[in-house]
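[AMINO ACID CHAIN]
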Amino acid sequence: AAMVGDYAAPADRGLAMGMLTTSMGLGFAAGPLLGGLIAEAFGVVTSLSFMALLAMAAAGLAWFTLVDEGIGRGVRAGNP
């Protein structure tokens, strides 16, 4: 959520946060359903392998598309 806040323009921040929250909810709902369907049809090992492959693809996509702009570096927070 912090990264979405950093990357989204101030005018689009609400929409970006809403899309993040919606996609997380859909993932929590669809993940077990998809995993169960694959496990039922092809077995548990295939289901876990497929989910691991999806996770690696998502990590690779994030690794190659997100750019470190140094946002927030050098900012020192005060005492609460």
